[in-house]
Specification:
The chain is an alpha+beta fold. It has 15 helices and 17 strands.
């Protein structure tokens, strides 16, 4: 077997890459192409590939995050609201070689499904060794972000290789268990311990939105309205993250061109004016509500956000036979009231300096215990 490090996904055969497992939209050739063509951040991709007999048998997606990447989610996770103060005095978990596709969760080391177990284990071992060697050669740590608890094989390997572990931001998901939207309404009523919750809240918000003249529909070609849709996404991202939207204006068109039917763009219009947009990605029976933009001034109190972010995608996912919807992190209580369950995600970190790795052990122990206590007070976590 031979490990090859590649700088562009365009240098990897699309069919061979998409045959690797586990599969998922955020590690797909199409999504990675979108990231390369439209992402504005300084992080650079590094694709680690393992080949045998001229065939791709394993791979991983990593990004080089330099110390200048001030908007790093890694530092946000480790320092919380004290991130800026920590960075000012020189404390940072950067630079790091981060192993996880952009927006991806539970997708780290991939291999061919038909690869015999001994060869697969060797391929994964070679991948991790190459990742650590590349990081050390560039004076970087290695970080595996957004690791799920059910990635048992990966967890065993990382812990066996001396990685520190802590909790990261919870991931909100909806597991679809109902044949229709009425079943979803009954579910929300039950989890909120209110017999009238669906009528008082969800049905009211849906009726108000419809009576306000809002029409939500899927669009196949975002290009004619690209500027308006991009502006909505950009304003929402900046408002929640205090940093600019990290994509070029042709982002939605590029997503649609590269992902086709695996990308759903829903647009909301109120009295003929666009007042909302959401990008939903899917892979088989799994949907991902990826990003949203709302014109709150135009929308007023018509509940466009809740209809565009939850009720319409959930209804469409149920009708399409999907089994899971991912809603990302943040707004945990709002999402819980609308049927989401928060799952634990983990971050694994290993410094390229042995002494630093030893000194970081108490910090990770403190951070893990503190974060667990913090989350247990506000959330019921699974995973």
């Amino acid at each position: 077997m031979k490990v090859v490090i590649i700088d562009s996904i365009n240098d990897v055969d699309r069919d061979q890459w998409d045959q690797l497992h586990p599969q998922g939209v955020f590690r797909s050739h199409g999504w990675l192409t979108v990231m390369e063509q439209t992402m504005l951040t300084t992080s650079r991709p590094r694709y680690f590939t393992v080949h045998a007999n001229n065939t791709l048998v394993a791979g991983a997606v990593c990004y080089i995050l330099k110390k200048s990447a001030r908007n790093s989610m890694l530092d946000s996770c480790m320092f919380g609201r004290f991130k800026k103060q920590a960075q000012r005095i020189g404390f940072s978990f950067l630079p790091s070689l981060v192993c996880c596709p952009t927006k991806g969760v539970g997708l780290h080391l991939f291999s061919r499904k038909d690869l015999p177990r001994p060869e697969r284990q060797q391929a994964i071992h070679d991948l991790l060794a190459a990742i650590e060697l590349e990081a050390a050669a560039n004076n970087m740590a290695v970080c595996f972000n957004n690791v799920l608890g059910d990635e048992t094989e990966l967890v065993k390997i990382l812990e066996g290789n001396g990685y520190h572990r802590s909790l990261s931001f919870p991931l909100n998901t909806i597991n679809i268990q109902w044949p229709d939207f009425a079943g979803y309404l009954q579910h929300t009523r039950r989890i909120n311990n209110s017999k009238k919750y669906d009528k008082k809240v969800i049905v009211h918000e849906m009726n108000r939105n419809r009576k306000s003249g809002v029409i939500i529909e899927e669009i196949q070609d975002p290009a004619p309205e690209q500027d308006r849709l991009f502006n909505l996404l950009s304003r929402n991202y900046r408002g929640h993250n205090q940093i600019p939207f990290p994509f070029r204006p042709n982002f939605l068109s590029c997503v649609k061109d590269n992902l086709g039917e695996n990308a759903i763009i829903l647009r909301a219009r109120k009295n003929g004016k666009i007042n909302g947009v959401i990008l939903i990605l899917k892979w088989e029976q799994t949907w991902y509500c990826t990003m949203i933009g709302i014109d709150h001034e135009l929308s007023g109190n018509d509940f466009t956000y809740f209809n565009l972010a939850y009720y319409r995608p959930i209804a469409d996912a149920i009708a399409a036979g999907a089994h899971t919807i991912f809603y990302g992190s943040g707004l945990n209580k709002t999402k819980a009231r609308r049927g989401c369950t928060a799952r634990r995600t983990y971050v694994y970190y290993k410094s390229h300096r042995r002494l630093q790795q030893i000194l970081l052990r108490p910090w990770f122990s403190f951070h893990r215990n503190w974060y667990e206590k913090k989350l247990s007070h506000s959330l019921s976590l699974t995973g």
